[in-house]
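A favour, since you know our structure tokens better than I do. Would you make up a two-line entry for one protein for me to read? Write everything out right here, beneath this request.
=====
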Amino acid sequence: MASLPFVRVALLVSFSVLLTVLLGFGLPALLNAVAKCCGFPETSVTECIVGVYFIFVLYVATPRIPRGSIEVKGKSVFITGCDSGFGHATAKHLHKLGFTVFAGCLFKDKGERGSKELEEMQSDRMKVVQLDVCSEEQVNRAVESVGRGEQRRCVYVWRGGVYDHGDVPPGVRGRVVNLASMYGRMGNALRSPYCVSKYGVEAFSDCLRYEMKAWGVKVSVIEPGNFIVATGILTRDIVATTADKLWREAPPGVQEDYGHAHFDRHMAMMRSYCSSGQKDVQPVLDDITDAITSHRPFTRYNPMEPHWWIRMQVMTHLPAVIADRLYF
């Protein structure tokens, strides 16, 4: 089976060719008319189209260019949400690379499996701390536990939560890596609460990048695609429990307006998502690592399957009327 990078390149190049062919029939005529009105030679329009297309294909097909790496020894990372999912996997991955990891866990004080597994590593470089990102007191206590010296060269990987730039200690010369989602760039049916939270992470990360530039802090956003199977974030039991609660607590008028058949149809759709997506979180870990260790990290990373990447480009760059017709 072809590797994912090869499949991605093949699909994206095919997409670019298809898009060029579709636009090629009408766009040149339109641009030629505009160029003629402006007094420019008509041939220059065709040359420009070919040039833009060549640059696009080159951008899609070119592998990530190495941009130098920082020295890992003596560096620390502070990670939230390490009980499970991306946070847990990131903590173990970065520890393996040689970082000192401060792993924030919501359920450390309850001895849940995720935090317990990290503590059982019994490593001086794996420090598990109690952290509810919605509690200002716990956030302040966790940051203080890192130590003032460590804070100034620490990388902060925030998997969730809302915070302000005061949570990043002044004088820091490190990085902030926020985990968002492809749904921070585009909406989808039945995803409104999730999309709202991820759009917020995207907007906040942009603001934080501008605000912290004066201190040399670089801010990156990771936008994973569908990793439901890999992270176990959504299961059939969760869908069933949530669906039962939603329907039971809905006012009679709402139940009558929507109808049980409509509700059941959408819940069946949610159950179908439980077995979808990539099974390995390694693409996300690789991008987080690049954001942390590269001398010139990207602003945004898109670890996702090719068809999701194409959909995100269509929904964020083409008119909404086209995207809506294609996907909804």
